[in-house]
């Protein structure tokens, strides 16, 4: 009973760690080369010395750009209470200039306990923003604009970026613009006049190296010794974990994992699955847990799709493949039916289905996106006459057919 | 909406029997400042008592008053030449009451005197009798109003709007009687002519010869007297006792700092109906009186300006003091004892601090003032005008006025923004004041784009041309409309040069060299839509907000038909449109309308358009290009010498950069774009990198200090790298194993087929071949598809949506050489090099 309780607690602790990005990224924040300290230096410079800056955080998704930024902002807010206000925008939500300015005005109002009016026009809001920038600058307060999905702000006329960056050129304003984007060419998207006003600090977030991955694993999974856990349990848990991590089978698993995608996010997803597989009665992590996790994370959706197909659907796919082998590049339902009839006549492997049944199967395949229309034109045409394409290659079709249990063997 | 105020402006004010001449009906109302929410300083209210009513303190006779009206700012027109308006009779009586001192007649002479700085203290021109008489007259004509002055000589002191003065706090305080202008020495208790030095801690004055050991001259930097020094080390110190019979006299400064005196900033001066002189003052406050109390970083001589106003009678003024901005304060070494530092404004309602605005903003204010001057001098309907102006003034002066300002929405009040007084720090952060900047940090500040340079090297020719253009357009009697098109790549100082020219011209206007004009600045990218420019222009001209259609109509009336909109009717108008290309609409009507106005005979409109493209006029309709394209000015990109000069002129006096480093940065930028902003940013980034390195290494105790703190080639190189180099190579180097194989397969495919574009199907086959022949496990098509999409997200490759699966088109976004460079010596997958 006691042991189970301990195991449950350990599970909860590890899960909450995995879901907390600030816990994940703290071990990387000490070294001077880390993005954390670089970013913190730039922003705190702006807070203390009233430098205006604009920074781009670039890197593939899942490398912790926002997580590190949040860490920095949290620490800065603690260090300089009342002097930093953060405005957050997301390109997916506010890429329209008008709406972005309104959101800025709203957040500024909330931050400073002012009354906000939804009715304000673009001009009103932009004037409000500029005068707020000025007043906050005079009061030694820094406004930090965080623009997530920065590349989406860099579309069209880029009014918002222009007016933000232009307002930062006045001596009284004290602001930082932080763009976060996974597009490496985000700064090339800016218009010339906007780019000229941008100060081009760039921080690159890279996926962790092997050693860092190892450190991260132990940081997340090992239990603290001096805590509510009983000493014996924690020791044993860590010893078992250490053994697993040292096992070459485990390194293999991690290698396959990071071979396809080495970002932190991917690792966390994997670990979460592994931890969830933990047997509460046993109370410790086992290698089996990680094996199940890697299997569940490396899915092959197309192949699984094929396994669920009916025999008729497989027939249709095979017919389409045969048509393609005959180098017939454009075909529609009717030509597929012709081929189907031809196969049926020559092999007689299974029942012959009526045309309307085949059409149903054909539509089903369209919905499962195993086949698709070649173009979007002619949507008024009925399904039979629109040209289609196979969305699955012959290399996938063959193992797919093999794995399907109801599939007749010859074709 | 816009029509009504216009009518009101044009209608003669005399028709209004109860004309709102007196902006404040009585003192009491003027004094009725709303009580502070938390009366932390309740005694402040005692300041508002009417000093004038107290006749017990004739320390100085108020009768010895002499007035000088200089630049009769707020003097209503009617007072100057009363004969023109219907109220001539009344005016006459006013002038009579002024009796011998008729401002109109005396003005030129007085001005001269003022220029000579001779403080004349003539006898009682305005005697009590006159005052008495006036009072009677006031009863007769209660509608008479105050006369505002810019400068007044009162009891020997010359007080001007904008001066700071000591104000007596208690009426009968005996301590106020003596008013030593010169401080006594703390040791010998004599004042005398000998040179004195001030202790930076206790602010006591010492004769150089009285200090032990005596000094010959004032030392550089801070100096702390022996007494304070001893006190700091913990010794008990006995202050030298004054000689018997002589009380130590406190100077006004000491009294102020111990809150026995007050200081105020004069906002406006006027003569009340009864002939007494009053001024509207804005109080100064000492740090002890604020909610935050004295903070550690407060200097001994620090004051805060408040937003608390009061009307004070001139009688209670002691003499001048000088509250200075930090810059002036640091220079003011020998200005005497009454010098104070005032950097912040204190909000008495919210108990918060805010920096006082910098100088260029003040200039703007001043400009507004001068505009008003001209208007009130020239406009026949100045009575209403003045009233309006006072309204405005009141609004400006009392941001925390009786209106419940904080209940209005902050972001939409027709251009006025409420609630800004709420913003302010409760405490001034220590790091702002106490931090001593290193050379690197100073370099960083001067390299900021926001810092306005003192001079603009390399743009003299262009500036001369702009000046000549504007002068040519404005100075002629018949101001013909003109148009100038300025083009050049970003960051070549186009807007800055125009604004610098306008600043220079403004000072010339102030000096009287050129006729006044109004200057409107707009930016195409800051307008919600191109049509909104009409609204912006109209608002700038008249101060009213109307819809753009209405504004267009009114502007058309003004510029084409010669109907006058606002008060600045006869002035030429200079319109600066930044980012002109944004005004191009489909039928180009906005641009056409704006550029058509200058061609109209009475428009007096000068348009300066700024844009990046050289051939904008040619891209437009011929009727527009014929109007715009005549006079053009090109701002070429800066060459490296110019950039070098720009950077080093900013860095003058700061030893933070190696010379080659600057040259390197400027050569690099000149070769790429010639953008001055970019050059400055590179240097700033380089300084930042150096600073980062130094601070990092100093925080680690074991490492030695990182050499000299100057920015060298290495830092500039790093900054340039960061700024210009795309980071894709690093990403390629560090991305996952399969992504690297994927990229190599793409390059391989490219070599094989010679086509830039490939489909996912072909690529997957190539990858599986590569994997098979090199003993690598093929991950399966679905994983490969995901990897491809991830690379596409980073734009290392360009790809279609993943739903297209095997038909998905793929293309490398960078040259294949970059991939080869990044992956050639890969340790994990050495076989990759074979295929590159």
Automatic annotation (TrEMBL), chain A:
<dbReference type="InterPro" id="IPR016527">
    <property type="entry name" value="ORC4"/>
</dbReference>
<protein>
    <recommendedName>
        <fullName>Origin of replication complex subunit 4</fullName>
    </recommendedName>
</protein>
<dbReference type="GO" id="GO:0003688">
    <property type="term" value="F:DNA replication origin binding"/>
</dbReference>
<dbReference type="InterPro" id="IPR032705">
    <property type="entry name" value="ORC4_C"/>
</dbReference>
<comment type="similarity">
    <text>Belongs to the ORC4 family.</text>
</comment>
<dbReference type="GO" id="GO:0006270">
    <property type="term" value="P:DNA replication initiation"/>
</dbReference>
<keyword id="KW-0067">ATP-binding</keyword>
<feature type="domain" description="Origin recognition complex subunit 4 C-terminal">
    <location>
        <begin position="216"/>
        <end position="397"/>
    </location>
</feature>
<dbReference type="Pfam" id="PF14629">
    <property type="entry name" value="ORC4_C"/>
</dbReference>
<keyword id="KW-0235">DNA replication</keyword>
<dbReference type="GO" id="GO:0016887">
    <property type="term" value="F:ATP hydrolysis activity"/>
</dbReference>
<comment type="function">
    <text>Component of the origin recognition complex (ORC) that binds origins of replication. DNA-binding is ATP-dependent. The specific DNA sequences that define origins of replication have not been identified yet. ORC is required to assemble the pre-replication complex necessary to initiate DNA replication.</text>
</comment>
<keyword id="KW-0547">Nucleotide-binding</keyword>
<dbReference type="InterPro" id="IPR027417">
    <property type="entry name" value="P-loop_NTPase"/>
</dbReference>
<dbReference type="GO" id="GO:0005524">
    <property type="term" value="F:ATP binding"/>
</dbReference>
<dbReference type="InterPro" id="IPR003959">
    <property type="entry name" value="ATPase_AAA_core"/>
</dbReference>
<dbReference type="Pfam" id="PF00004">
    <property type="entry name" value="AAA"/>
</dbReference>
<keyword id="KW-0539">Nucleus</keyword>
<feature type="domain" description="ATPase AAA-type core">
    <location>
        <begin position="55"/>
        <end position="201"/>
    </location>
</feature>
<dbReference type="GO" id="GO:0005664">
    <property type="term" value="C:nuclear origin of replication recognition complex"/>
</dbReference>
<keyword id="KW-0238">DNA-binding</keyword>
TrEMBL record, chain B:
<keyword id="KW-0805">Transcription regulation</keyword>
<keyword id="KW-0863">Zinc-finger</keyword>
<dbReference type="InterPro" id="IPR011011">
    <property type="entry name" value="Znf_FYVE_PHD"/>
</dbReference>
<comment type="similarity">
    <text>Belongs to the ORC1 family.</text>
</comment>
<keyword id="KW-0804">Transcription</keyword>
<comment type="subunit">
    <text>Component of the origin recognition complex (ORC) composed of at least ORC1, ORC2, ORC3, ORC4, ORC5 and ORC6. ORC is regulated in a cell-cycle and development dependent manner. It is sequentially assembled at the exit from anaphase of mitosis and disassembled as cells enter S phase. Binds unmodified and methylated histone H3.</text>
</comment>
<dbReference type="InterPro" id="IPR043151">
    <property type="entry name" value="BAH_sf"/>
</dbReference>
<keyword id="KW-0479">Metal-binding</keyword>
<dbReference type="InterPro" id="IPR001965">
    <property type="entry name" value="Znf_PHD"/>
</dbReference>
<protein>
    <recommendedName>
        <fullName>Origin recognition complex subunit 1</fullName>
    </recommendedName>
</protein>
<dbReference type="Pfam" id="PF09079">
    <property type="entry name" value="WHD_Cdc6"/>
</dbReference>
<dbReference type="InterPro" id="IPR015163">
    <property type="entry name" value="Cdc6_C"/>
</dbReference>
<comment type="function">
    <text>Component of the origin recognition complex (ORC) that binds origins of replication. DNA-binding is ATP-dependent, however specific DNA sequences that define origins of replication have not been identified so far. ORC is required to assemble the pre-replication complex necessary to initiate DNA replication.</text>
</comment>
<dbReference type="InterPro" id="IPR003593">
    <property type="entry name" value="AAA+_ATPase"/>
</dbReference>
<keyword id="KW-0067">ATP-binding</keyword>
<dbReference type="InterPro" id="IPR027417">
    <property type="entry name" value="P-loop_NTPase"/>
</dbReference>
<dbReference type="InterPro" id="IPR001025">
    <property type="entry name" value="BAH_dom"/>
</dbReference>
<feature type="region of interest" description="Disordered">
    <location>
        <begin position="361"/>
        <end position="386"/>
    </location>
</feature>
<keyword id="KW-0238">DNA-binding</keyword>
<dbReference type="GO" id="GO:0008270">
    <property type="term" value="F:zinc ion binding"/>
</dbReference>
<dbReference type="GO" id="GO:0005524">
    <property type="term" value="F:ATP binding"/>
</dbReference>
<dbReference type="GO" id="GO:0005664">
    <property type="term" value="C:nuclear origin of replication recognition complex"/>
</dbReference>
């Amino acid at each position: 009973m006691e042991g189970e309780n301990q195991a449950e607690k350990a599970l909860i602790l590890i899960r909450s760690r995995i879901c907390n990005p600030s816990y994940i990224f703290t071990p990387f924040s000490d070294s001077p080369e880390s993005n954390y300290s670089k970013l913190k230096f730039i922003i705190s410079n702006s807070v203390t010395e009233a430098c205006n800056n604009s920074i781009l955080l670039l890197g593939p998704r899942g490398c912790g750009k926002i997580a590190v930024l949040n860490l920095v902002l949290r620490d800065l807010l603690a260090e300089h209470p009342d002097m930093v206000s953060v405005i957050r925008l997301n390109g997916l939500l506010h890429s329209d200039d008008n709406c972005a300015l309104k959101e800025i005005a709203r957040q500024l109002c909330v931050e400073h306990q002012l009354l906000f009016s939804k009715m304000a026009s673009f001009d009103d809001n932009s004037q409000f923003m500029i005068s707020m920038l000025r007043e906050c600058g005079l009061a030694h307060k820094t406004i930090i604009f965080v623009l997530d999905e920065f590349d989406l702000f860099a579309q069209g006329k880029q009014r918002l970026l222009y007016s933000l960056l232009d307002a930062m050129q006045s001596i009284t304003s004290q602001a930082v613009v932080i763009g976060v984007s996974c597009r490496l060419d985000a700064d090339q998207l800016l218009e010339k006049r906007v780019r000229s006003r941008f100060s081009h600090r760039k921080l690159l977030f890279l996926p962790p190296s092997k050693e860092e991955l190892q450190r991260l694993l132990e940081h997340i999974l090992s239990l603290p010794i001096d805590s509510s856990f009983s000493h014996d349990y924690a020791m044993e848990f860590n010893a078992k974990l250490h053994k697993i991590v040292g096992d070459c089978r485990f390194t293999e698993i991690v290698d396959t994992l990071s071979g396809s995608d080495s970002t932190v996010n991917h690792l966390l997803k994997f670990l979460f699955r592994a931890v969830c597989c933990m047997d509460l009665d046993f109370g410790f992590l086992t290698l089996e847990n990680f094996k199940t996790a890697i299997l569940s994370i490396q899915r092959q959706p197309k192949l699984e799709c094929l396994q669920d197909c009916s025999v008729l659907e497989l027939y249709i796919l095979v017919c389409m493949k045969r048509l393609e082998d005959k180098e017939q590049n454009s075909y529609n339902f009717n030509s597929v039916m012709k081929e189907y009839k031809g196969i049926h006549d020559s092999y007689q492997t299974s029942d012959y289905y009526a045309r309307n049944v085949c059409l149903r199967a054909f539509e089903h395949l369209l919905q499962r996106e195993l086949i698709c229309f070649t173009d979007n034109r002619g949507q008024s045409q009925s399904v039979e006459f629109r040209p289609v394409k196979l969305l699955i290659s012959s290399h996938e079709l063959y193992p797919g057919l093999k794995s399907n249990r109801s599939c007749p063997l010859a074709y | 909406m816009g029509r009504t105020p216009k009518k009101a402006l044009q209608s003669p004010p005399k028709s209004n029997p109860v004309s709102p001449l007196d902006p404040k009906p009585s003192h009491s109302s003027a004094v009725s400042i709303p009580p502070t929410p938390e009366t932390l300083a309740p005694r402040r209210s005692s300041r508002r008592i009417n000093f004038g009513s107290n006749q017990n303190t004739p320390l100085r006779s108020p009768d010895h008053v002499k007035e000088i009206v200089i630049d009769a700012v707020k003097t209503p027109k009617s007072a100057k030449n009363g004969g023109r308006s219907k109220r001539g009779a009344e005016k006459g009586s006013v002038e009579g009451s002024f009796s011998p001192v008729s401002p109109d007649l005396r003005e030129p002479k007085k001005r001269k005197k003022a220029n000579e700085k001779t403080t004349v203290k003539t006898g009682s021109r305005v005697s009590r009798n006159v005052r008495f008489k006036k009072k009677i007259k006031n009863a007769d004509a209660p509608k008479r109003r105050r006369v505002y002055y810019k400068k007044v000589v009162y009891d020997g002191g010359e007080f001007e709007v904008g001066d700071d003065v000591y104000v007596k706090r208690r009426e009968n305080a005996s301590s106020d009687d003596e008013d030593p202008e010169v401080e006594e020495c703390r040791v010998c208790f004599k004042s005398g002519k000998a040179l004195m030095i001030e202790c930076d801690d206790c602010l006591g004055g010492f004769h150089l010869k009285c200090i032990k050991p005596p000094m010959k001259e004032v030392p550089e930097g801070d100096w702390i007297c022996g007494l304070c020094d001893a006190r700091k080390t913990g010794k008990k110190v006995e202050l030298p006792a004054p000689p018997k019979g002589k009380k130590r006299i406190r100077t006004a400064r000491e009294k102020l700092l111990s809150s026995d005196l007050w200081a105020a900033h004069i906002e406006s001066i006027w003569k009340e109906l009864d002939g007494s002189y009053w001024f509207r003052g804005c109080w100064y406050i000492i740090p002890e009186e604020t909610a935050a109390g004295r903070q550690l970083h407060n200097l001994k001589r620090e004051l805060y300006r408040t937003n608390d106003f009061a009307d004070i009678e001139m009688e209670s003024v002691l003499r001048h003091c000088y509250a200075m901005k930090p810059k002036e304060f640091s220079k003011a070494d020998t200005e005497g004892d009454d010098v104070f530092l005032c950097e912040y404004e204190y909000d008495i309602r919210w108990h918060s601090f805010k920096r006082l605005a910098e100088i260029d903003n003040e200039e703007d204010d001043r400009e507004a003032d001068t505009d008003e001057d001209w208007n009130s001098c020239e406009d026949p309907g100045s009575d209403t005008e003045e009233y309006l102006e006072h309204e405005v003034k009141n609004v400006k002066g009392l941001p925390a006025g009786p209106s419940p300002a904080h209940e209005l929405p902050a972001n939409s009040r027709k251009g006025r923004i409420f609630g800004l007084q709420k913003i302010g720090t409760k405490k001034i952060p220590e790091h702002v004041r106490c931090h001593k900047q290193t050379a690197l940090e100073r370099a960083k500040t001067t390299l900021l784009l926001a810092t306005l340079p003192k001079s603009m090297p390399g743009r003299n020719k262009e500036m001369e041309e702009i000046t000549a253009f504007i002068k040519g357009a404005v100075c002629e009697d018949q101001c013909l409309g003109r148009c100038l098109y300025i083009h050049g790549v970003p960051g070549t100082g186009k807007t800055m040069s125009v604004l610098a020219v306008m600043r220079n011209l403004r000072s010339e206007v102030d000096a009287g060299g050129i006729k006044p004009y109004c200057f409107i600045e707009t930016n195409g990218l800051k307008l919600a839509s191109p049509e909104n420019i009409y609204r912006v222009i109209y608002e700038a001209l008249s101060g009213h907000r109307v819809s753009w259609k209405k504004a267009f109509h009114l502007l058309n009336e003004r510029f084409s038909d010669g109907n006058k909109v606002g008060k600045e009717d006869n002035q030429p108008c200079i319109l600066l449109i930044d980012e002109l290309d944004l005004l191009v609409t489909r039928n180009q009507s906005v641009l056409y309308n704006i550029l058509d106005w200058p061609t109209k005979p009475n428009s007096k409109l000068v348009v300066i358009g700024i844009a990046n493209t050289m051939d904008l006029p040619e891209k437009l309709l011929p009727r527009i290009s014929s109007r715009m394209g005549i006079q053009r000015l090109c701002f070429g990109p800066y060459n490296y010498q110019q950039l070098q000069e720009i950077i080093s002129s900013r860095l003058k006096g700061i030893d933070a950069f190696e010379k080659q480093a600057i040259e390197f940065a400027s050569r690099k930028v000149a070769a790429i774009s010639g953008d001055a902003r970019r050059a400055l940013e590179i240097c700033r980034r380089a300084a930042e990198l150096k600073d980062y390195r130094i601070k990092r290494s100093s925080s680690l105790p074991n490492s030695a200090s990182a050499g000299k703190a100057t920015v060298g080639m290495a830092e500039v190189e790093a900054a340039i790298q960061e700024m210009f180099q795309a980071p894709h190579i690093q990403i390629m180097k560090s991305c996952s194993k399969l992504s690297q194989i994927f990229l190599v397969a793409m390059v391989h495919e490219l070599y094989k087929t010679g086509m830039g574009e490939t489909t996912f199907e072909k690529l997957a086959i190539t990858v599986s071949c590569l994997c098979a022949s090199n003993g690598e496990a093929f991950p399966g098509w679905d994983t490969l598809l995901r990897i491809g999409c991830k690379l596409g997200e980073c734009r290392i490759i360009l790809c279609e949506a993943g739903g297209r699966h095997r038909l998905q088109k793929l293309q490398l976004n960078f040259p294949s050489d970059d991939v080869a460079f990044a992956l050639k010596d890969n340790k994990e997958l050495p076989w990759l090099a074979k295929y590159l």
